[in-house]
Design brief:
Oligomer: heterodimer
Helix content of chain A: 25-40%
Order of helices and strands of chain A: HHEHEEHHEHEHEHEEEEEH
Distance between the termini of chain A: 43 Å
Largest interface: A-B, 57 and 51 residues
Distance between the termini of chain B: 64 Å
Number of helices of chain B: 17
Number of strands of chain B: 19
């Protein structure tokens, strides 16, 4: 943000010199990242967190592939720390995203701009437009499967202003299963699969405890995959929206894979 | 004081019929053909010409003769009687007049040619004409069945004066085969009277100089005051023929004898009483115009002149420290068709370059035809801009909106206003009504949603029916089936009782009852999926309660 905001010629030149120096030294300028606040997760990423100037794919596990509820809640929480720096644009063909629900997760809805598009291509182009706009901290697009070109364009748009892009894969209701699961844009920085996880009993054993998600990092450029159970952290308890509950063992991930196929 | 131009198209039904049937038997082959399509709107498109021989036993004209020389009338059915609705000059010369029975008229003039009168088409043509008049002023009002009012305050200088503007207007209409009369005065009433009853001996009469309407109208007949029928019929019987005579009378007696409306009409004509005109666009001084010596048609030229026109209006806005939210660029074609292109801004602005970028993608809808001769531009929702501009240099928080505005503008202009929104809380218990869509950059609402009432991330437009098994009545179910998949409930929370807002219209009879009440539960299944389900209806009544799923927490 600072780099792009710097208006004066001198500042731009200084930034350029810095980058050249970094290239010459064989290192890369550390890009701003969005950390999870837990070394077990942040260690999977080369920069210690999800890089801001890039885009990420999020899919739902099982039925969530169609409803996109758990991924939406996860993404909403993930973006919570970014709201301070700008607006969040959420682009979708369907309008079932319910702002009071995001608000309940601690997401300030007054920074959420919702856009309803007519088709897939429009979704992607609006997403690209939003990401390359100053003042947009992050943009989320609900789409089926963008091709490689769309992925490249998204990447360029993210780099332009340091925007954080999320592509939420969502199969249309009644659509063919499997298509959304296909790995599409290799241009994305990471690929996630999100499903719900049973919540812990609340202290008084009445009602529901804080929600939990089964989060699988399937692919991550320059990093390593992983799987965790994450729990929502109240907005008051620190800057990070998630609390690591447990690490998913390898056999857990595999088991989930078979369960998904059966479902 | 405003300057009002009144246009009157005498014998409008005949005029429009002739223009609708240019190839018809009565076609006027003169200037009308030469100009190509008729000016405003495409009335000729899709509207089949009404049959030249009307029903009711009218004599159909023989095909061989030149019908242009025959008298012509339009017919209308009134209580089962065919009557003349309008007559042309030749028929008028033969003493035919509107209102006459068709049978009588045909007895008098056996070779009368008739056609059906179509008032809806006349109205549409008048509306098209009013849209065309946007080239003279954005504020055009339809006046009765055959006239228009234009608020030309501040726009006549673009033509080099009122007389030149009036001349241009009448010359254009005449070229399209629309005989018209027009006048300019301070008030709609005076202009109306002058247009219809002015002698038009010299051009000076058609224009009443500012403040001079009393002198201009005093020689007109009293009918020029738009009086009620009774008063208009009675005044000449008392020897009051001219407006001047009425002006000389004491007002109190005038009002007593002929009603308050008479004095009101007098006052309106003199500018002593206000008169509201219903403009199709609001009257605005923010109007500008570019005319070209050579008509333009190339797309890049259209884009360039759109930019030039916007630059004109933006420069004026800037000079006065104002900005606007809505801009309209209208391309006026040689043949009189007008293509408006609109752009809206989320925040008031006056950046011509940005506006041009919003306008240019929409130019493909403009069909330049034989060329565009005039471009007009007008700005709406004009407000002072200085206050908003100050914030540009302020720290992020507020200036974020300024950087977002261009994006919102692009999206709104491309997708439509209702497709870009921000959700704001609304005071309603009914979940689907607890949010309203507002413009993204509107000031945020003072209150948020109630955190004690958890709401799902995905809310279905319509709740979906589920089959559920509950252990005890009034308990959350222990198992339910949704979309063919069975879920075992692990934990549940609730109920939250939500009543339908019965005072609102539109709450159907069927989807409510004592079951107008919904008991909502948050439930979690074995896998951790969280659902928002509700029970409608109560146990113990004749209808078993129904279960629905309304949303997903994710």
């Amino acid at each position: 943000m600072e780099l792009t905001m710097a208006g004066s010629r001198e500042a731009r030149l200084a930034a350029l010199r810095g980058r050249i120096a970094a290239i010459e030294a064989g290192t890369r300028t550390p890009t701003p990242v969005l950390p999870f606040g837990d070394p077990a997760i942040d260690g999977c990423f080369p920069g210690g967190g999800l890089p801001l100037g890039g885009w990420h794919e999020v899919t739902g596990a099982g039925l969530e592939d169609e409803t996109g509820a758990a991924p939406a809640a996860f993404v909403g929480l993930l973006l919570r720390p970014l709201v301070k720096t700008g607006a969040i644009v959420w682009v979708a063909r369907r309008s079932d995203l319910f702002a009071p629900g995001l608000f309940g997760l601690g997401f300030p809805a007054e920074r959420l701009i919702q856009v309803r598009t007519r088709d897939e291509a429009e979704t992607l182009s609006v997403l690209e437009d939003a990401l390359s706009t100053q003042g947009v901290a992050a943009a989320v697009g609900e789409a089926e499967a963008p091709d490689l070109t769309a992925g490249r364009r998204l990447q360029l748009a993210c780099e332009k202003r340091g925007g954080f892009g999320v592509l939420l894969h969502r199969r249309p209701y009644g659509g063919r299963a499997g298509k959304g699961g296909a790995v599409s844009g290799s241009a994305s920085f990471s690929r996630w699969r999100i499903g719900p996880a049973p919540s812990p009993p609340p202290p008084d054993d009445i009602g529901l405890g804080p929600p939990r998600w089964r989060v699988e990092l399937e692919r991550c450029r320059g990093g390593r995959p992983g799987g965790w159970i994450l729990q929502a952290q109240e907005a008051g308890h620190g800057p990070h929206p998630f609390r690591l509950v447990s690490q998913l063992a390898d056999h857990d991930v595999a088991a989930a894979e078979s369960w998904r196929k059966a479902g | 004081m405003a300057r009002i131009l009144s246009v009157w198209c005498p014998n409008w039904p005949i005029t429009t019929w002739r223009r609708r049937n240019p190839g018809g038997k009565l076609a006027d082959t003169g200037p009308l053909r030469a100009c190509g399509a008729p000016p405003p709107g495409g009335e000729e498109d899709g509207r089949s010409p009404s049959s030249p021989s009307g029903g009711g036993g009218c004599v159909a004209s023989g095909g061989g003769k030149s019908d242009r020389d025959l008298p012509f009338a339009l017919l209308i059915s009134e209580h089962g009687t065919r009557r003349l609705a309008a007559v042309d000059e030749k028929a008028r010369a033969l003493a035919l007049s509107p209102g006459q029975k068709a049978a009588d008229a045909l007895a008098l003039v056996p070779d009368l040619v008739t056609a059906d009168h179509d008032p809806a088409a006349d109205r549409a043509a008048l509306e098209a004409l009013s849209d065309w008049c946007v080239r003279f002023s954005p504020a055009v009002a339809i006046d009765g069945h055959d006239g228009l009012f234009l608020d030309i305050t501040g726009t006549d200088h673009l033509w080099g004066g009122e007389a030149a503007m009036l001349g241009d207007l009448l010359a254009r209409l005449a070229r399209w085969g629309v005989p018209a009369r027009a006048a300019i005065a301070d008030t709609a009433g005076a202009a109306w009277g002058l247009a219809r009853f002015g002698t038009h001996g010299g051009d000076d009469l058609a224009i009443a100089p500012p403040g001079q309407q009393r002198a201009a109208i005093q020689d007109l007949p009293v009918a020029a005051l738009r009086l009620e029928d009774a008063a208009e019929a009675q005044l000449p019987r008392l020897g009051l023929h001219r407006v001047g005579q009425l002006l000389a009378l004491p007002r109190a007696q005038l009002a007593k004898r002929f009603g308050l409306s008479t004095t009101l009409r007098l006052d309106q004509a003199l500018g002593q009483a206000a008169e509201a005109l219903t403009f199709r666009r609001p009257a605005t001084p923010w109007f500008d115009r570019l005319a070209f010596f050579e008509p333009i048609s190339a797309p890049e030229d259209l884009a360039r002149v759109a930019g030039d026109a916007l630059a004109l209006i933006c420069a004026r806005l800037e000079a006065e420290g104002r900005g606007a939210k809505r801009f309209e660029v209208v391309f006026h074609r040689l043949d009189g068709k007008a293509y408006p292109v609109r752009a809206g801004l989320a925040r008031i602005g006056r950046d011509a370059k940005r506006l041009t970028r919003l306008i240019v993608p929409k130019l493909d809808k403009v069909d330049p035809g034989f060329g565009v001769e005039v471009v007009t531009v007008h700005a709406g929702a004009v407000e002072p801009l200085a206050a908003a501009q100050d914030r540009l240099d302020a720290e992020s928080g507020t200036s974020l909106d300024e950087t977002l505005a261009p994006l919102i503008d692009r999206l709104v202009n491309r997708l439509g206003e209702n497709r870009v929104w921000r959700a704001d809380p609304y005071q309603s218990h009914v979940p689907e009504r607890s949010q309203v869509r507002v413009a993204p950059l509107d000031p945020p609402a003072a209150t948020g949603w109630d955190p004690a009432r958890p709401r799902p991330v995905r809310l279905f437009k319509r709740p979906e029916a589920i089959t559920a098994l509950a252990k005890v009545p009034d308990d959350p179910p222990i198992q339910f089936t949704w979309r063919g998949r069975s879920h075992r409930v692990r934990r549940a929370e609730g109920p939250e009782r939500i009543g339908q807002e019965w005072w609102r219209a539109g709450v159907g009879e069927t989807d409510t009852g004592p079951g107008r009440i919904r008991d909502y539960y948050r439930v979690e299944d074995d896998a951790g999926g969280r659902f928002w389900i509700f029970r409608q209806g109560l146990f113990g009544t004749e209808d078993a309660p129904k279960w629905w799923i309304h949303g997903l927490f994710g």
